[in-house]
Amino acid sequence: MDQHNVQVGIVLGSASDWPEVEPAVQLLHNWGITYEVIVASAHRSPVRVQTYASQAAGRGLQVIIAVAGAAAHLAGVLASETILPVIGVPIASSALHGMDSLLATVQMPAGTPVATMALGAAGAQNAAIFAVQILARQDPALQARLTHYKQELAGKVEESSLHLQDKIAHLKKTV
Q1: Where does the chain bind substrate (predicted)?
Q2: Distance, CA of 150 to CA of 169 (rounded, Å)
């Protein structure tokens, strides 16, 4: 992939975070959003993280998603080295079940903003959607895809409600 056409950079603090992120990457792929995924640790490879962040805008990236567990300083370090929006996804990978990564990701000092999502796979999917929302501000076709996606979500809720009402009606008939 041509590095200058990548819109979203996804940085995993560990390759073990991939299962939580894969559905989000599939979402980006399905929507035609170009992305790259790398592994870089704020603690074990800080120069790699700093270099990635400081060069991201120059390479054409528009948004960075940082996925990390435990101490989870990845999003903050990335945000400190770039003016691009950084979206943090805390992962429940330690004995503290994600509380440590959530607090580390959400507690950024003034001047180092990180948009923090929910823990785990749901947070990763929301990060992908949020990145697309950022990109869609300048792309009417992408805005239309997001609108359609939201309509599909609403339709699924309506469908599940009707299904539940049918079950309840059936239950009432048997009583």
Answers
A1: 14, 17, 44
A2: 29
15 domain-assigned: yes
CATH code for the domain in which residue 102 is found? 3.40.50.1970
What torsion, rounded to 10 degrees, do the Cα atoms 52, 54, 58, 64 define?
Answer: 60
What tens digit of pLDDT does each residue of 36-63 get?
999 999 999 999 999 999 999 999 999 9
> Any binding-site annotation on 59?
no
Predicted structure pTM score = 0.90
The answer to the question of whether 145 is labelled as a binding residue is no
Tell me, yes or no, whether 106 and 146 share the same domain. no
Q: Is 44 annotated as a binding residue?
A: yes
Taking the C-alpha atoms of residue 3 and residue 55, their distance in angstroms, rounded to an integer, is 11
- Pairing relation of β-strands 86-91 and 8-12? unpaired
Report the number of distinct structural domains present in the chain.
2
